[in-house]
Amino acid sequence: MNRESSKLTVLYHAISSYQLLEVMLHRHLFHSSDHAALLLPDFITDKYPQWQSLAAQGFFDRVQLFPYQQIPHETARQVLRDTARSCRRLRLSLRRFDRLYIAGAHFYFTLYILKKRRYFYFLEDAPGMLRRPADLYRPLRRRYPLQAALARRYGLFTADNPYVLSAICDPAVSLPGRSLCHFSVEDALSALPPAVRERFVRFFMPRPLTATADSILLTQHFSNLGILLWPQQEALYRRAAETLRHVPLMIKRHPDDRLDYRSLFPGAQMITQPFPSELLPYVFDRPPRHLYTFSSTGALTLRRHMHIHYLTGEEHASPIPHSC
Hints:
By secondary structure, this protein is an alpha/beta fold. The chain folds into two domains: 9-191, Rossmann fold (3-Layer(aba) Sandwich), CATH 3.40.50; 208-310, Rossmann fold.
């Protein structure tokens, strides 16, 4: 059998910034010579209007947008019907793919995969999230109860479904009796040759950022997730501003966060461009050495690059151990 005929055809699905970087790296490391398609949500275009360059730059062979915003959250039957119709409109036949890699498995496309009785690889939603599925389930239930209920019913927060071949997750995750494949975005980025890593960084950040401080604050979109009310989130970060009043600071706002941090931290440098926080060590001319956050999962992948300082005062989430 020649090399061309032995190529696989694989499909990736990603929702968040972290997942997009995750599948870009996974494809590069494990399926660079195979034909790879990527399915992104239609709402990602606000964050990454350059999404089409994922194909133009060779990260994937084909990239399509799934119309999640056009699927109402009414009934399970209606959701599956609309999801199947969307797949037909995209000419997305699962029979064409040898392997399916699904990040953001709690979104409706996975129901279609299960309906078709296709086995797939489950990619962890965020580092360590398989150990804390309730942190994903609870905020989703507040905003989209049907989606949360269906995902929970089919084990799509925990990868506990008979059609999951293996869960691709952070090396720190250990689930006895489960098939796990450990994959670290941090390790993958660090191991890339500098010129190759630069390609990944420049997709998200065309030009390097100039650092004006040695510390950076990662914000979280608590109100958008339904974890806190808007005034509560504002009060939370107002207290953080008081705590950090003597710290020269840069602020990286979560891509889905809409709080006005300029008014709360008037002297801080605002990083407005959306990009995965895992790229923080590589986007600055002089990377910051200290990172502050309440409970951002992004901090977990930066432990070898920065001193992590966890702020206190949030009553909404399980505490994460301090790590430096």
